[in-house]
Amino acid sequence: MKPIYLPLLAILALSACATESSQIITSPTVETAQQHYQGIKAPLSIGQFNDHSNASGGIFGGNQNRIGNQAKTILTANLQQTGYFSVLDRSNMNETKAESQIRGTNQKLKGARYVVTGDITEFGRKTVGDQQFFGILGQGKTQIAYAKVTLNVVDVNTSEVVFSSQGAGEFQLSSREILGNGGKAGYDSTLNGKVLDLAIREAVNNLVRGIDQQKWNPHN
Question: What does the radius of gyration of the chain's CA atoms come to, in whole angstroms?
């Protein structure tokens, strides 16, 4: 092999190497997560989280249970992060009972005066675009995801809704191409989870604000 080919082979070998990268992304938390609440935590049970949005009958219809379960998981984490509540999740009752039996102990389940139920009232996506000078000077595309949720605090003794809070959020992903250059963003399914988390987090913030403003008392 002639020496002149050796540098070329070395360049090709380097260009064919795989690269790997990673980073830790800090997840947003509720407002009170960093305030170190010192009061007594009130037992709070989580009920059903239903999807009553128009999306449940459209392209997301087959994912209704998945979206509801995803929303319930987000709600559980956000309520726990507030520090105001001792969150009781009844979705793993069979698993916790079986584990208790394996340990040879009897369960001592804690009861709650209030149950929080949730509803996704609005949930959807759309894509909008624009062009500059018939697309010759560039074109752009924006994916928009929107969600609105409602939380109801229900008295288990009377079935009375003692407090309600809402939260809404919108996420956008934009890309622009100018004269053939620029990013081209494909469909991003993670926007659904991001906007759902945003809306639920704001609803939980409003739930805690209701306590601080003495509109309802979880200890009654």
Answer: 25
